[in-house]
Amino acid sequence: MKPVLYISPTVWSKLMFLAATAKTEVSGWGISFDPKTPFTIDDFALVEQECASCTTEMDDDAIAKFAIDMAEKGFKPSQFNRIWIHTHPSGCGATPSGTDEKTFTESLGNCDWAIMLIVNQSGASYARLQINSPVSLQLEMDVEIDFLTEFDTPDFEAWEAELKELVREKKYTWQNNIGNASGTVARIGYQSHNLYDYDDDEYDTSASSRLQLEDALDAKLLSGEISQVEYDTQMQRIWAF
After folding, report:
1. Which is it for strands 137-145 and 4-7: parallel, antiparallel or unpaired?
2. Rounded-to-integer distance, Cα 175 and Cα 189, Å
3. pLDDT tens readout for residues 9-62
4. Residue of 86, 85, 13 lying closest to 53 (CA atoms)
5. What is the rounded distance in angstroms from the CA atom of residue 96 to the CA atom of residue 211?
6. Residue 55: which of 138, 165, 168 has the closest Cα?
7. Which H, E and C letters describe 46-95, residue by residue?
8. Radius of gyration for the chain, computed over Cα atoms and rounded to the nearest angstrom
9. H/E/C letters for each residue in the chain?
């Protein structure tokens, strides 16, 4: 029997709203009000972040500020810094990508335990518990909405305001290398823009295809088929907007 991750109806509603509204991934932290029930998500906190259609990167300073604020309110790290939640936009399933796995390991791999939860627009979800101490163990989890908890009225205006304030799109600009017979591209920098500064037709919709390319590159890098430099170059081309 799988362990169960319980989510309040209000939090689930907010996650579905974010997945449907944002044109990119969006990530944040699940919060448990009761330290005795760490596998129950009672609230969801966004922090400042830069995102693309299949990547999400929370700002380190924003995470630190969030942790300090929660500690000052009397919360333990196990209540606000163990459940990493992120959405997948239209065209993506809820299965973790290679980048998701890397982020989860690098960010929470030193914790005694941690959970990765992914949800997409259609309501599909994926949750996995990673136990690091005293033994290493990974367990997929069932996700259930806890209808025994109170369902607050959804505040769509407030949730959209959070998106506009805290979530910014990472946008890359590219140019061809002049005189390069191979026709490779060179990164000349990226620009961050508010998600809502663009019309819908300016967004790339091939998120699922780019996830497949990313996973293929991950496999090639791990097998030694390509170098880190080649990997970085190809990843930049995949995520060019």
Report:
1. parallel
2. 10
3. 999 999 999 999 998 899 999 999 999 999 999 999 999 999 988 788 999 999
4. 86
5. 10
6. 168
7. ECCEEEECCEEEECHHHHHHHHHHHHHCCCCHHHHCCEEEEEECCCCCCC
8. 19
9. CCCEEEECHHHHHHHHHHHHHCCCCCEEEEECCCCCCCCEECEEEECCEEEECCEEEECHHHHHHHHHHHHHCCCCHHHHCCEEEEEECCCCCCCCCHHHHHHHHHHHCCCCEEEEEEEECCCCEEEEEEECCCCCEEEEEEEEECCCCCCCCCCHHHHHHHHHHHEEEEEEEEEECCCCCCCCEEEEEEEEEEHHHCCHHHCCCCHHHHHHHHHHHHHHHHHCCCCHHHHHHHHHHHCCC
The CATH number, out of the four listed (3.40.50.300, 2.40.30.10, 3.40.140.10, 3.40.640.10), of the domain defined by the range 4-166: 3.40.140.10
Residue type, 71: A
Instruction: Look up the pTM and report it.
Output: 0.72
Give the whole-angstrom CA distance, residue 111 versus residue 239: 30
* CATH 3.40.140.10, the chain: domain bounds: 4-166
CA separation for the pair 214, 168 (Å, rounded): 22
87 vs 144: CA distance, rounded Å = 17
Cis peptide before 134 (omega within 30 of 0): yes
Which of 2, 32, 7, 31 is CA-nearest to residue 141? 2
For 157-178, how does the pLDDT look when each residue is reduced to its tens digit (9 = 90+)? 999 999 999 999 876 554 444 3
